[in-house]
Amino acid sequence: MTWYNDPERNRAFREGESAKIRFELVPYTRGVGVELGCGPWRAFPHFIGIDAQRYDSPLGPSLVMDCSNLATFSDEAFDFVYSSHLLEHLVDTAAALREWWRVIEVGGHLVLYLPHKDLYPNIGEPGGNPDHKHDFMPEDIVAAMRLNAADWDLVRNETRDQDDECSFFQVFRKLAAGAGQLESWRLPKPAKSAAILRPGAYGDVLWTSSPIRHLKAQGYHVTLYTEERGEVVMRHNPDVDRFVVFGAQQIPKGFSSEYFASEAKKYDLAINLVESVERNALAWPTDTRYFWPDRVRRKVFAANYLELIHDLAGVPYEFHQRFHASAEELEEARAWRRDNCGDEPMVVVAPSGSTAPKFWPHVEELAAMLAAEKTHAVILGDLRGMEIAAGWYVHPVGMAWPIRRAMALALIADVVVGEETALLNAVAMEPMRKVVLLSHSTVENLTKHWVNTVSLSGAVPCYPCHRIHQTFDRCPRDESSGTAACQAAISAFEVMRALGKVILDGRR
Question: Which residue intervals of the chain bear CATH 3.40.50.150?
Fold first, then answer.
């Protein structure tokens, strides 16, 4: 089930109690979880809806069962349990809370949205719900959790009385045994707060490290809104104080700006970088500009990517793009280099990017040239089916390593060679020599502000295209290799020449 473009099919997302807080749920409902008492429509399509009765609705309950008895599910089966306006209908609320807490794994969340006793008609009053068994204040739920659930942190505790709301919203995070019962929602708020929204690929999110450094220097407490992969690549960045991480099922394409607009009210400064480069400096096949004449597209898309996001963030042109590896990750990288390369030079090669045309076909030839110079070539990323024989100086790691391990090794390399990809973005401002194999971007677009970087491009009429090619439908291919013409045109000899004396004389 997905969010639909059809307004009628999306009606459920604009109605009901959950619609009032849908975006508030996002940080706490990633992964696999249940919505108890969902009624005819679940808050999000990826929720497992449970209700005591069946509804004739495509977004209705997945399971029909007693919401207070989850014996079907094992302990710690879910990342979250969410319930809206249900607990007040149950006779034994303590038993229900114990059962709901049981199925949440450590680190997961219990998310409750309940009618507020002071805002909603009470039992027996005019307008009151005749099926209600209880009238709750927020402190009643906290007291019940103290008696029926161990080791939690109350991270949200808010009365919701704006517009047509008459409820309160609570989020309990399950902690490891022995942690106690905490209430971090009481902690003082930062004096100055800023938020940046940037979903996207690893390299796209890494760009945010530069404006974030400026915001941190200006005294802001910085929250980064991003997808799972964004959190992965920005983890350990000392300038990010908080992450709000969402999945594609939670914020479908086209809804992220609407979501962030609702979140922006919580901050002194909010910066929306959604598709800041992809839509403003590159053309997609669905974009009319994709079909413009090359000369026009090259003129319009001349902006530097880092300058653009600095402009959007309102910070100066001082660039601090960085990948921050942990001490443990760096030590692991150094140990691998010692064990596999000794004291000899090491070149990290990333021959592929995120799209089909981003692949350099001469990596095996380059590895042989480096081996002849007694230089180790560590080849990382998708090799697109290419069989590269391992040797004393050739290390075809491929996709065997997670992205952070690959980036940590790149940080301690003598040279990094590769496509316009995340690995090269991770070392953009590092002192080692970089050789970038340009495809749809130019030096002005991508590497203008990079440190110690040589940018190579193929001498073909279509370069630079400023197009995002997911396929080869409109990307000219080299007949011999079957790869993009612009990549095949960059020879291994050119790359070796770009390395200069680094290989022969350089040692870190």
Answer: 11-186
